Amino acid sequence: SSEERNLRFSGVGRLYTNKASITPEEEQQSSQEGYLQVIDRLEASHVVVVGIGGVGSWATEALARSGIGCITLIDLDDVCISNTNRQLHALSTTVGEMKIDVMKRRIIEINPNCNVTLIHDFVSKGNADEIWDTIEQSSSTAVTACLDAIDGSDAKSAWIASCARRGVSVVTCGGSAGRTDPTKFVCADLTRAIEDPLLSSCRKNLRKYYGFQEGITPGAKSRDENGKKRSKLPRKWKIQAVYSTESPQSPPRNNNDSSRGSCDGALGTACFVTGTSGFVAAGKIIEMIANNKLSVPKR
Fold this sequence. Notes:
This protein is of the alpha/beta class. It has a single domain (44-221, 233-248, 266-291), classed as Rossmann fold, CATH 3.40.50. The chain has helices at 2-15, 27-43, 56-65, 99-110, 128-138, 153-166, 197-210, 271-290, and strands spanning 46-50, 70-74, 115-119, 145-148, 169-173, 185-189, 240-244. The radius of gyration is 20 Å and the shape is globular. It comes from Fragilariopsis cylindrus CCMP1102. InterPro entries: ThiF/MoeB/HesA (IPR045886), ThiF_NAD_FAD-bd (IPR000594), Ubiquitin-activating_enz (IPR035985).
């Protein structure tokens, strides 16, 4: 019922209600109408989450608990026991299950009215458009925004470019491995991201293969790639990126550690880092939707 929905998500609605123009006499009635409008806007939204791992799982949880009415999850991985240190859905009872299947059950427990679509596939350089076709065929609700938690630069670049072609707001997440300080995460335009090899590689791919304008080389903002002084900074791409300003640790010399699971990387990762990244990304999407200020990517 609408009453039950409002009880679930009124806290989010009130959080984003703008009371600046409300007079004292109108405050009670207008604030109620305002927060209901925010809840309605979130419920009418469709957010696609690509990559339901260490970052994407926590981001999906935040979107569900914020009242997003339609969520599409894209991944083709199963839960490994070595995911336990960093992924929300990794439990002793879920090992071996598909990650997006586990997340769908959790979303429905949080909000039974959420429309959850599952696409069992990995995004790659060659199938981004096919996956968009599947999204459009699987849901009658147009995509409002996309949260990109892909961990490979080629697939990540292809997906970001596909969002730009369709004019879909996208928030992309950088790397979390080898970092220990969750307070170092920030959200800024992708062209301004620093200390993140994954996002740096994406920028290069987007410029080289997808026609994106030159971005900023970290540490050389006042000069171009030829060392000449810039007359002005290159324009932003209007793609929000979540990244840590903490320098990642270097990979260990011996990467053949037999104690490491096949689902684990050479660098260690912790849930308070992956979770922070996912929450920051989800928070940005909720902010844009609630304030009706979606950011359309520009190449």
